[in-house]
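REQUEST FORM: STRUCTURE PREDICTION
Request ID: SP-0412
Submitted by: Lab K.M.
Chain count: 1
Length (residues): 215
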Amino acid sequence: MTLVLHGHPLSTFVQKVTMAFYENKTPFELQFLDLGDERERTAFREMWPIGKMPVLHDTARKQTVPEASIIIEYLAQHYPGRVELVPKDPDLARQTRFRDRFFDLYVAVPMQKIVTDRLRPVGKNDPYGVEEARALLKTALDMVDGEIGGEEWAMGSFSMADCSAAPALSYADRVMPFAKSHPNAHAYLQRLRKRASFVRVLEEAAPYEKNFPTK
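STATUS: Completed
RESULT:
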C-alpha cells in the first residue's frame, strides 16, 4: 500500500484524517498504533520524534508527513479526489484553514484536556485547568452556534474544516453535552454524524469505545 497512516481509531486527529481519505475514496492502510507499548512508542518516535499521531508515510513518494491538517493538505495536493477539501481559491482556502484550526485548537484541545484529566492518577487532577478548558469550549461552541447557524457545512460546501469539526464536536458532546445549550451547533453535529465518511470512522472506533473515560 502506497499510503500508510499511523494512528489509533479513537484519536480525534486520526479520525479527522481518515474522514478525508474516505471522502475521496483514497486507498490507504491504517497502521494501528499503541503508544502504551514501549516498542511501538520507540519505533514511532524514530519516525516522528514529537510522538503525536497521526503520521502519514507515502512509500511511493518516499515522504513522511506528520500533523492532521498537513496530511489533508498533502492529500489534496498529491492525491486529489472529487471532494475539494482545500479550495483552490486563495481566500476560501485561508478561511477553510482558519475554520480547520479553530475546531482543532478551541474544540478538540480543550475537550482533550477534560478527557485526559479523567485518566490522571488520584490526587494528580487539575480542576482549575479543566475549568479553563470548559470555559474555552463553551466560548467556541457559542461561536459555532452563531457563525455556522443554518449553513449545512462550515464553509458552505464540505471541506477540511468539516473533517476537523466532526470528531472534535462529537467528543465534546460526550464530555459537555450541548444539544440544549447550543442547538445550531448540535444540529451541525447531527449532519456530520450522518455523513458517510464519519459514519465509517465511528464504526471503526466502536470496538475501542470501552477505553474512553466516561467520568
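NOTES: The longest strand covers residues 3-7.
Reviewed by: T.R.
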